[in-house]
Amino acid sequence: MNAEQFTKLQALLQRVQQKSPFYQNKFKAAGFDIADIQTPADIAQLPFTTKEELREAYPLNIQAAPDEEIVRIHSSSGTTGKPIIIPYTAQDVAVWAEMMHRCMSVAGLTAKDRVQITPGYGLWTAGIGFQAGVERLGAMAIPMGPGNTEKQLQMMVDLQSTAICATSSYALLLAEEIHKRGLKEHIKLKKAILGSERWGDKMRIRIREELGVELYDIYGLTEIYGPGISISCSACNGLHYWDDYLLFEVIDPQTGKPVADGEFGELVITTLTKEGAPLLRYRTRDITRMLTGECSCGLPHPRHDLILGRTDDMVKVKGVNIYPGQVEDVLKHIEGISSEYQIVIDREEGKDAMLLRFEQQEGFDATNLELRVKKYFKTKVGLTINAQALSIGQLPRSEKKTARVIDNRY
Prior knowledge:
Layout: H1 3-19, H2 21-30, H3 51-56, E1 70-75, E2 85-89, H4 90-106, E3 114-117, H5 126-137, E4 140-143, H6 149-158, E5 163-167, H7 168-181, E6 191-195, H8 201-211, E7 214-221, E8 226-232, E9 239-241, E10 246-251, E11 265-271, E12 282-288, E13 290-291, E14 303-304, E15 309-310, E16 315-317, E17 320-322, H9 324-331, E18 337-348, E19 351-360, H10 366-381, E20 386-391, E21 405-407
Parallel strand pairs: 3-4, 3-5, 5-6, 6-7, 18-21, 19-20
Antiparallel strand pairs: 1-2, 7-8, 8-9, 9-14, 10-11, 11-12, 12-15, 13-14, 16-17, 18-19
Helix pairs in contact: 1-2, 4-5, 7-8, 9-10
């Protein structure tokens, strides 16, 4: 934490102490006094904020500004429980637009670009966030929203879009459709800004080659503004995050203690300037690590690594903890395997059984690939599994996020 961040943190503590009933009650329950934060190291005394607490605060108990200052709300999907409602002040909206603007600039976009925006609008943060950044940049926003692939391709050709914002799953679906229809020579895409889910190296290669674009990872979450809080750069060595607005920490998810720079752990974020719903030490559940040293791209903002997975993405099979990122790491080393995979877990005769389904490239023997996957997985992860090779296109495609794990045990 630098001096500027610490000053903003102290101002944030004063603000939530005065204006946030949520944190007033939380501090009281934890026996915490903001006067105890005298040095940057004292942040360890601040209690964490969790997703469960935000759900319990539904609908607007997290709000820390009067209604007349709230200009918008956004919400998480609520697919695993109550949705989380996040209120925004005009300044919050402006800060988010500025972060998105920076992301567009880092990706090399200019006012001459035409940017096709495919993520959803409405309560979800993605679509409107991308649009705000594009418009602040002065580029042409093409606010398509999700789905309707036929229309997406028509607009991509007719309007000659030069950049696309999407989930990696939908970018792959579009790339496959462009290839099937022979449209590659008719599109002008140069850049793709992709986020909302983890995606592996093989998927990157396929999207990059089939769309003919430069790829940029963008990161964010509804609770912390939305997408745009960090982005990868031309050096492709981690994601730069906006440390003048946000404080990042990485902790051991089991102990809550900080890990050393370069070690993987759970990302924790504090919103240094947010007004509508400020968050202190919010546990994102995303697994990453801090990267040290200056980036060759010249940006002064610090970096974190790609998101390895989520603490709640982990599944335990036969006592072994497995993340989707580990599966991708296995598959990327085996020639002949494409980007798409699916993990299916069942109970057979009272024991866990895992099937890894994957798509194979043409010209490779399925039986040989299955044997290699089983052997390599046993060596790398320490677990005996079954493997099934499928033709490209047999696994489901998604216009949003791809479900990688199907757990039938519960």
